[in-house]
Amino acid sequence: MILRAEFTTEPFEGEGDPPAHALAARDRLLEAGLEPDFGPLGTSITGDREVLLPALAAVLETALDSGAHRITLQVTVDGAPVEES
Asked: Which is nearest to 31 in space by CA: 9, 58, 49?
């Protein structure tokens, strides 16, 4: 099963270099062999469930250990219809 995840880590630090917690989260995904789409407002990643779920657990732990105060995470089965609220 292919999953798509999107997450943001906070606090945001405004303009300039991304905060350490955001970079650490991105690096954990890279270490897992995944290719995240890293942007100024968050990170998205698509991958096989067996690879992505453990990588996301590592992302949460790493981001918190690196100074994140909040992590917002959404996981969707790739190709599943998205309900609008």
From this structure: 58
DSSP 69: S
Per-residue burial over 50-70, b if 16 or more Cβ lie within 10 Å, else e, is: eebeebbeebbebbbebebee
Mean pLDDT by 10 residues, the chain (85 residues): 96 83 95 92 94 97 96 90 66
Give the CA dihedral 83, 41, 59, 53, nearest 10 degrees. Answer: 20
φ/ψ of 29, rounded to 5, equals -65, -40
- The pTM assigned to this predicted structure is 0.85
